[in-house]
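Box 3.1 — From sequence to structure: Argininosuccinate synthase
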Amino acid sequence: MQREKIAIAYSGGLDTSIMIKWLKDKYDADIVAVTGNLGQQKEIENLESKAIATGASGFHFVDLKKPFVEDYIWRALKAGALYEDVYPLATALGRPLLAKALVDVALEENCTMLAHGCTGKGNDQVRFEVTFASLAPHLKVLAPLREWEFTSRESEMDYAIKHNIPVSATKKSPYSIDENIWGISIECGVLEDPMVAPPEDAYQITTSPENAPNEATVVEIEFEQGVPVSVDGKKMAGLDIINRLNELGAKNGIGRLDMIENRVVGIKSREIYEAPAATILHFAHRELERLTLEKTVFQYKKNIAQDYANIIYNGTWFSPMRTALDAFVDDTQKPVTGMVRLKLFKGSVTLLGRQSPYSLYNESLATYTEADSFDHKAAAGFIQIYGLGLKTFSEVHPAK
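Predicted structure (token representation):
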């Protein structure tokens, strides 16, 4: 019989670190660990040696930063995708790309199974497995966290200690942290009580607003067809733009989010996020759309933004619906070109100005000075026709 070969999505965190040994022992299989680089800063050093020492027979480190920015983040930004009007979907956006990378390696290595380290009540299990089903439906999927004997992160840490598996989580600091260039999610520990304010040690990159500089930072961001192309007049690649805005935003306490969100499985969970660049760029992009999009397009696109956010959050990135919405979004973004000037100060983002060659703002129509060119007399007829339906209704059904 062919020996089983399992490709696992390997982050180097607590769950996936102990998962290598657990799977190897349970299935007597060869383990191929696959790490996708989405711009995370922590737990990426010595991953190969750590995976091999833990029992993996192979390791792949896949640089996904460029496609993550250009094919995922920018699409979500153009769509205005914020889950439940708050979360910029950093973790959710990365999952389909990580799952695709895992499938690609599994096919290359002739693996017979795919494995992930997602919990049985979280969102990521759905995102990974729906992507697997879309891209490689013939491969068997394993989800150890849904079946193994460990009932808490503390028991997982005990297993790691027993088998000399190095992990960064400790019983004193038990946070579960997921990081990529678009944002960081932090959960577990005291954060599970929604009445407990996040301890300062939970935050990974941002300065607290109280300790942020007393002098504001002014930043100018230029967009072309909805995509950021420069910061403070300097043209940059997308990755560099996000890095720069993460740096400026983190220094000024921007991007701390504390929300109760509705998970895919129906559970409400308390999530802490840090997303400086995402917060800044979504704000700037929306303000530029206010200036350049026709009224009905701007208002209708708000509905599309929620639909798009739900597609990302619910794990159906590789779907015809997302592709169809991309076509709509891309068409709306043709005039979203221009510059937005912002002030970053102690946790807040304030608009200072915006301009665009496609601006629909007409000062001669908007002004109340002598330069006013609006025909005020035309308003009477407009109002009469606009309200005619309600007037007719009220004549038949008078108010009581």
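Summary of the box: The two ends are 83 Å apart (CA to CA).
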